[in-house]
Request: fold
Amino acid sequence: MKRKVLLVAALSAILVLGVFVIAAQANNRGGNSGRVFGTVLVTGQGELYQTFATADLPPNGPFQVLYTGNTASGYAETEYGPGDPGYVGGRWIEVYIRADGSHMYTENYFLCPLLGPGVPMS
Reply:
């Protein structure tokens, strides 16, 4: 019985370690699928949504602009969110706002769904 408990504990530790290794590799890869935005402000709603990047996408199909960098709110920002006409389900092209306020269009196309419900920005 003691041997079975030790075996289950060892297998559990290996599984947890594997999850951490996979997560670390995803965060260290090139591309957006390793980028975690965490929170996005939907300016048209005034609400914050949690999110995470799931996949890089090829540059074809509908995309919505996601502003990152030096935004006024300090969050990644977009105009439309879940329930709004114009929201394309989290398919983004990233536009980086520089410190001087100018915009730099990137070649970053990715899937990053917004997880509701949104929370009003206070």
